[in-house]
Amino acid sequence: MKKFTSLLLAGVVILGLAACSNNSSSSKEEEKDTGTHKVEAKNGTIEIPNKLNKIVVQNYSDEAVTLGQNVIGTDTYAYANPHLPKEATEKIKDLGAPMNAEKIAEDKPDLIITMDEDQVDNYKKIAPTILLDYNDKAFKDIDSRLEYFSKLFNAEDKKDEFLKEFDATAKKETARLTDKGIDPSKSTVAIIELSGNKIYSYGSNFGRGGQVLTRGLGFKQSKEMQEITDAGGFKEVNVESLANLSADYIFIDFKNTDKSQYEALTKNPVWQKIKAVQDKKVVQMDFDQVYYFAGPTATEKLLPVYVDAILDQTNK
């Protein structure tokens, strides 16, 4: 009887401890949902809700969606992103450029993220506002951006889940190149965009597939591209300055309205002497898919697009 009583008491104690544990877990979850945390930004230390139901974010809508946030508005440029899932884009409004404060206020977001310093005073009347600096080294690639935003959104698990999936996709797509004798780790790239009568060259973190090629597929930046990456992201150039371009591959994009400029460029004697041109390693990309989109989801979606273009256009 004593043994039975002891066992019964032990059971009661265990159940009591389990109940306390469950209550503690519930309390922690409730605190996570209802509390606040502080975030360092260009405009200081900002206190924001732990649980965000609706956010407005300039430029970085891809990062926010990737990390499971409910984005209800973004700027005109990021709004054009064709790579985000439909269920996310259906909720997102084009708020203009700069984002219109009156339109933002209509939907009562919990948080606003912007790069427009002169708009902060207007935005913070609506919701806590985070001011970011695009040129900050904390945003130099998809890994550093995901690191920052995952802490901002309390979404480290989402970040880890995405990067695991991304790395698996990148490995698979890189293998398609190596199977055809293309070793990205031993090949250098350059990125060029035509706009009107101007030529621009880009670094690794200004859209135009820079992160796809370097972080995703493992291509090396050419000397010229590395200099542009280090200097701020893009640079206006001319054909003559490209004469000694050292890249093994050139990736080029332009609007349909600038197709005649590309045709004229291909007939230029200086262009025809460039190493990658002579080696038939110029890869033309669709401007509307690549020009502005450097977020994590866009980068992942573009991995097979770039591999297809490389193999198709270099006759591999």
UniProtKB/TrEMBL annotation:
Transmembrane segments: none annotated. The keyword Zinc does not apply. Residues 23-42 are annotated as: Disordered. Residues 27-41 have a biased composition (Basic and acidic residues). GO terms for cellular component: outer membrane-bounded periplasmic space. This is Ferrichrome ABC transporter substrate-binding protein. Belongs to the bacterial solute-binding protein 8 family. GO terms for biological process: iron coordination entity transport. Keywords: Signal, Transport. It comes from Floricoccus tropicus.
